[in-house]
Amino acid sequence: MGPNGAGKSTMINLISGLIPVERGEIIFDGTHIEGRSMDWVSRAGLVRTFQVAREWSKLTVLENVLAAAPAGQREAVWRAVFGRRAIAREEARLEERAHQLLTRLNLTAVIHEPAGRLSGGQKRLLEFARVAMVAPKLVLLDEPLAGVNPVLGDELGRAIQGLRDDGATVVLVEHNLGFVERNCETVIVMGTGQVIGEGSMRDLRSNSDVVDAYLGQGVS
């Protein structure tokens, strides 16, 4: 977390490969990923969301989730010698997983609706389902509460917990301090492109640099 302009979204953009790295190193799971494309980084198990939820508006909710399944799984099946039965089994497995995720996120009532008709909160939950379908190692969430009804805060918190239960590490950028406190074990505060505090929310409330940054007095 951190005030506007602290560099939070820039950090996510650099790590995910959206913008090029000019200097320094980014190491993920023991591998240098600086200079890699977004699709390469995603295939390595690091995925991200954006402040505005993105979906394929003309595809159904179910089709959106199925489209997020790693292509490598399907390609391996197509190359297998077992033919159509193996393909059918794999497609059935992916569809079952998609249904499980949509049930977990309370989207079964709209499963066959075009994704473009969903509310802002539903689109955000659909985004979580698509992320979970990838089975990532690390997820970067850029302000998941942006444009979402605050009532859905608890539901989004459960969605984040679902990603963690599936084995993913979650890095969250968020301005809602109450949401951060409820859902984050460790909080890192940025200011003017640098880390100015790290710890629990209780620890950070007594950190003078953090307090000054949020009061607009700059970083000492």
UniProtKB/TrEMBL annotation:
Task: List the SUPFAM superfamilies hit by this protein, alphabetically.
Answer: P-loop containing nucleoside triphosphate hydrolases
Q: Which Pfam families match?
A: ABC_tran
Q: Kindly state which keywords UniProt assigns to this record, in alphabetical order.
A: ATP-binding, Nucleotide-binding, Transport
Q: Does the keyword ATP-binding apply?
A: yes
Keyword match Heme = no
**Any idea which GO molecular function terms this record carries?**
ATP binding
InterPro entries attached here?
ABC_AA/LPS_Transport, ABC_transporter-like_ATP-bd, ABC_transporter-like_CS, P-loop_NTPase
- Superkingdom of this protein's organism: Bacteria
Domain named ABC transporter is located at: 1-217
Q: Which Gene3D superfamilies match?
A: P-loop containing nucleotide triphosphate hydrolases (3.40.50.300)
Write down what this protein is called: ATP-binding cassette domain-containing protein
Task: Specify the species.
Answer: Jatrophihabitans telluris
Lineage start: Bacteria, Bacillati, Actinomycetota, Actinomycetes, Jatrophihabitantales
